[in-house]
Fold each of these.
Amino acid sequence: MSSKTDTQLYLICLLAFLCLSVESEAQLRMGFYRTSCGMAEFIVKDEVRKGFIRDKGVAPGLVRLHFHDCFVRFYNIGCDGSVLIDSTPSNKAEKDSPANNPSLRGFEVIDKAKARLQAVCKGVVSCADIVAFAARDSVEITGGFGYDVPAGRRDGRISLSSEASANLPPPTFTVDQLTQFFSNKGLTQDEMVTLSGAHTIGRSHCSSFINRLYNFSGTSRQDPTLDSRYAARLKTMCPEGSTDPNQVVPMNPSSPSITDEDYYVDVLRNRGLFTSDQTLLTDTATANQVRQNARNPFLWKTKFASAMVKMGQLCVITGDAGEIRANCRVINS
């Protein structure tokens, strides 16, 4: 291994350690807004409920929004609401990265919650905390276990498209790449498999997996690990050569709006939509975890709630750092 590679790996480990050290001292706590804005979590939950009634796709969108907020800017800042910031003529923001646009959604729910919170307790509740609350409420409204969210995050002031592209795992990752990626974020392999279960709800654009249908590994044929009947169904929804950016399919066809163990059942049947889903069966440890989660939904939902809490606390801004944005889309002037 080259000295350059050794140095890079050392820096990754050091940064992850420092980030985890910061996490242990972060001023996040349950009931953070109990005295300063007692209705905060209720207001967010109410807006998630309203959004879900209008469009069931809002819930998985909000869960994904939290993932993408926490994973980007990780070694400096994570879970800081930077994914909400709009681009400007001089800066292309995270939300407009190819990794996020056009797939991210749920922004309007955050906007409505923020507007109501500003009306009752101006300048108190951060956009980062709203995203964390909304993700929890989305898991719960779709059938997952609710969980307490430690709050007190502050909002970041930087949002760069390039950082989103560099810090979000693509759907083509192998199990080894996923394990290393999550490890760099301070998350274990078991937590990686657990959090992959978020693919039990929501949809995907065809462009994220179409290579598995028509040109897998440059062979001009479909991925041999993909169930043939499932592949045939996907081909009807994602025709070869189509350039329609709006073509989408459910990630878990049997229950796309329910947080359940069917994601793992599908992976065991070779019906994982992405390479990064199906690859979980290529490693003995992760394959065992997939089987366990498929057999024991109560255990998986419990682990998923715990993993979401842990992810939401990594490298947050607290105290007097950052800001409390008045508008989640715009940095305070």
Amino acid sequence: MPPRRTTPKARGAAEPKRVPQQQQNTRQVATPALSMAAAAKLLAAPPKPKPKTIAPNNASFEVVSPHLEDHCALLRVLASVFGTELAHPDYLERLQRIKQLFYERDFLGIFGDPALVATYSARYISGRALAYLDLVRDVPAIAAALDACRTHPVVSIGGGAGSELAAFGFFWRTRRLGAEGESNDPLQMLSIDIGDFSDVLERLQTALGPPSPTAPEEGQGRVVVSHRFMQADVLQPDALASLAPALTAAPLVTLFFTLNELFVQSRAGALQFVTKLTRTMRPGAILWVCDSAGSFSDIQIGSREYKITVFLDMLPGLERVAGDDARWWRVADGEAAEYPVRIENMRFFYRAYRIKATIRE
């Protein structure tokens, strides 16, 4: 299933992979970005061999989810949000067009077309939203960073399609309603993307607002997510300057199925973006990256190819607190019936890094 981007993106997964401004903060980007030569030197070690075997995308064995009830509830929310797109007479034609444009790596052709962006979200965010929801619950450092996003937003770069909003918003809603004494403060969230996903995100935010289906009498009228959307190309020279106020305050910044798209568009621009981003984020904040675990996420620097995970792990100023080079998320028995179209299994890597205090020096 395709990824999420913020510049002419290149998303990635099982089918086509998703491929993703406020005054400048004077503390931003005190350190120059990595040059191509510096990056090549940083990655001088031989690249790790690629795995030889990969399990089939939809293996026929039983999958049991410990979060089946919540997964099904979130899928019902998504089915209600995207009912119009999934039932549209041109749905299959639009989906085929999306796949063709992904094959051609014409990402702006997809994300610049309002009819295609909504179809993209309807088709591809369901599995990702569930995978992200599971990671929030499984990784304490990520859950703690998200919990801190009550006064300052989690910033989702390349988050326009809505899987981040769906996962984080649903987590916030169910946790708040399920625990006594839980704060009623809404989750603060900012999504940034190169395409105009404002309509999709507004519908998702509205759908996440009502109380949990298992406790309809609780939380009536409370805002679950205070969400803003910003349309921006983060590879533009002035993009991070305009985003600096949000990034310097954010406890959590996410890059989901976006980073490899940035490298596809511009290797030099992506190197500069990553180094500026890590130097703009505040010490102690978490940078959470997810992307395809396959060769789609290999990047070329000079004449050699490297895994994005190797590049990220060697960046100065980042402390890896969690990660997996190849994690499978599979549709569990009982989930598929809750969504009108097929939910794709997903093999991806993830990294969670804590920004070190010395990174600004």
Amino acid sequence: MAATQLKSLYEDLLRSFSSNPSDLKRCGVLLNQLKLGLIQTGLLLPVGEQNLNDLVVAREILEIGAVWSIRTQDVPSFDRYFSQLQTFYTDYSSVLPPSPREYPIRGLNLVRLLTQNRIADFHTTLESLPLPADAIAENPFLAHPVSLERWLMEGSYSKVWNARAEAPIEEYKYFIDSLMGTIRNEIASCEETAYESLPLKDAATLLFFTNQSELLTFAQQLQRGWQVNLSSGTITFARKSEEKIEIPKQKLIAANLSYARELEQIV
């Protein structure tokens, strides 16, 4: 691909991405063409000395691709773009000017790890950041996922829910919504164990739903046999039958007596 064609596609991508709202379909087409161009020019995974301006353009294309992936709810695509960006964020960090999108994207990756319950990877990635601890705490794009992880470990799910409104950029909300889906499933399991039934309003509050219709949709999607009675305003949970486990009392007594006799012989 000629340099002039690559530049034209890049400028078209900037216009499509910066429009309000972004033309996501057009961005997807352009990104595919641009990635092919980056491969042909050796800029997708650059090595050695490269033209500085070319590296900046390649980095921005991949960053737009990462954000575009979240806006189109394509997490595997985000993973690929983030992996490709590592060369620019690490190997060429000393020669490239800082990117305003770097830490928002790094923060998105941290939240993604939380949604996938990859806590060990979360801490490894956090520790590998080229920032001291106090700088991470002051960076809103990094402090946000750090707080989310702490609240998850504490079981402070209400703080996780409230964190959605405090997301530093809109794309964080996609992962927080995914995280809340996992949390709601855990809470639903606890409700089934703790209660036979609950008022619809209370069940909705416990599951962080703002209205009854959201609760009814959730209960229908779960397919766990919940019975909703709109006239009485209650929801009845399908309790799992308790398995009866037979304890071999005679065998345990005989084994304990045998151990006791052996101990007496040793003493």
Amino acid sequence: MVVSSRNALKRSRKTKGVGVPSIDMSFIKEDRSSLRDLIIEASQELGIFKVVNHGVSHLVISDLEKHALDFFGSCSLDKHNQVGVQPSPFGYGCKNIGSNGDMGDLEYLLLHATDSSTHPPSLRKAVADYVGAVKGLASELLELMGEGLWVSDKSILSNMIKDVQSDSLLRLNHYPPLKHLPAPLSPERIGFGEHSDPQILTILRSNDVAGLQVCMPDGLWVPVQPDPSAFYVMVGDALQVLTNGRFTSVKHRAMANSSAAQARLSTIFFGAPPLNALISPLNEMVSSLTPNLYLPFTWGEYKRAMRTSRLTKALLSCRHQEEKLLTMVEHTLDMENHIHSIRFYKADCDDIPFYMQVKKDVYGSCFLSQELSNLAR
């Protein structure tokens, strides 16, 4: 979810970089239990960790980087011709991030991870090889998380992104060097505004040009040192819900490129479930001591909610007890169209679920009844 970045460097910590926990995957056979404990701890405390010795071939990484830089180095007309006409939101973009008015100092390619029709022909093989390798890493990390969370089905998280209908994406962000930009320029320029990722898990890799910053639990922004040999792994909104808030999706942003000569290239794999997957806390994450915090929704519902409004605030909302949060004033069921129509009025709380549309002090929404049948409990 992209949100505005007002006062970009206000409350930023002036340090060389945050000490993001490092996970060495070479110990997966030797000390698997300690490795999963470190992953759980990092996911709970920061929502981000670095993975080294990850097993993804350097040749696979460098091949995609080379083809991506060649693509972004071509003229605008060539880039558009290579991509062709793609269904929204896929394809090539410059400055505009999405369709809701968010802007950034970058150009990018957004591709469906496994649908090669969205891939430019010059990148098709490199993308397929990269997605296959990074998807395997994401699946392995999610299985370690499942073990560390002590869920009965250790593969329940990884199976969501392994599904043939998975809605996973690959995004290539290119931040041009200063020599290609008009002067004078502010050192506080934002390349990609603050946001959390809506999917399950994000696997990010960048070259050796700095730019990534993460928001600490205390609200301070800190830079993350680039490491081209490693991947940065971030918890997404969907994983926050699946763990009932035990993991927290991390807010992050990218500052505009400050290098005079070298472009910054980041490659981001977003591991996502199928559109019809129901996202709700796993059974083992809910108890009398840790009550259910979230109403269930499908991944498709969440995506539609993001696309229908400018994303200037977090979309997730704690469930709370409905009688304390909202008072239901009307509930109808259209049997012919299988639609629930629900209207609430605002009580003394601003924490309204993401799928509720506001009109004055009345909140209402419509859903397929089979997707959110327990909303009116």
